[in-house]
Amino acid sequence: MKILIIDDEPLVRRSLMRALISRGHQVIESVDGIQGLEVWTKEQPELAFVDVLMPGLTGPQVIQNLDQKIREKTKIILMSAYTGGDQASPKLIENADLFLLKPFDDIFRVVEVAEGLMKENSGKIN
Asked: What CATH number corresponds to the domain at position 91?
């Protein structure tokens, strides 16, 4: 599976990348929202991990700026360490398929959840 990680935190990107690659996935990374939107449009991943708060464009802004046809082909997992204010509100995450809080307790559990999300969509989960 082709997976995009858009996050300005190197440790988050590196941890997710290592865990995903160890499970046989192709991983592309981006360090901010502007670059992430460009990479997403070019690579058209099946799954994207997107941080909520980043330089340039926020995660929700990246999603809003995507071409609808590209958006429909990608499952989106929004992530955030910030839970105050409206950062995790239903309106904010309405365009995501899943919302995860950082830091992750178990990175491999995060990967399992992401894989489950993809299997759910393809009808492989009973």
From this structure: 3.40.50.2300
Which one-letter amino acid corresponds to residue 4? L
Q: Which two tokens stand for residue 46?
A: 């099946």
Cβ-based neighbour number of residue 44 at 10 Å: 14
Residue 61 counted as domain residue: yes
Is residue 77 within 8 Å of 98, Cβ to Cβ?
yes
For the beta carbon of residue 27, count every other beta carbon within 10 angstroms: 20
Burial (CB < 10 A; 0-12, 13-18, 19+), residue 22, is exposed
Q: Count CB neighbours of 7 within 10 A.
A: 26
Q: Count of domains in the chain?
A: 1
Angle at CA 32, nearest 5°, toward 74 and 16? Answer: 60
Instruction: Tell me the pTM.
Output: 0.89
pLDDT, one tens digit per residue, over 32-48 is 999 999 999 999 999 99
